Amino acid sequence: MKNSSRRGFMGKAFGAVAGVGAVASLYAMKRSWDPLPSVKAAGFTTLDMSAYKENELVTEKWRGKPIFVLKQTAEMVKKAKSNPKDIERLIKVGNDYFMVCLGLCTHLGCIPGYNPEEKSFLCACHGGMYDFTGDVTKAPPPRGLDIPPFKIDGNKLVLGEEGPEYKKMLENGTTLRA
Amino acid sequence: MAHFTKATSLHDWLNQRLGIDTVRRVMATEYWIPKNINFLWAMGMVLAITFGLLLISGIFLLMYYQPNVATAFDSVNYTIMQEVGYGWLWRHIHGVAASVVFLIIYIHMFTGIYYGSYKKGREMIWLSGMLLFVAFSAEAFSGYMLPWGQMSYWAGMVITNLFAGGSLHADGLVEWIRGDYVPAQAFLNRFFMLHVLLIPLAILGLIGLHFGALRIPHVNNQDGEEIDFEAEAAKYKAGDKANSKVIAFVNDFMSKDMMVVGIYLIFFFYLVFYHYDFAMDPVNFDPANGLKTPAHIYPEWYFLWSYEILRPFSTDVGLIAFAFAQVIFFALPFLDKSPNAVPASRRGLFKFWFWAMLIDMIILTAMGKVPPEGLFSTIGLYAALTFIGLWIALPFITKFEKKV
Question: What is the b/e burial string over B12-40, where b = at least 16 CB atoms within 10 angstroms of the residue's CB?
Answer without folding.
Answer: eeebbeeeeeeeeeeeeeebbbbbebeeb
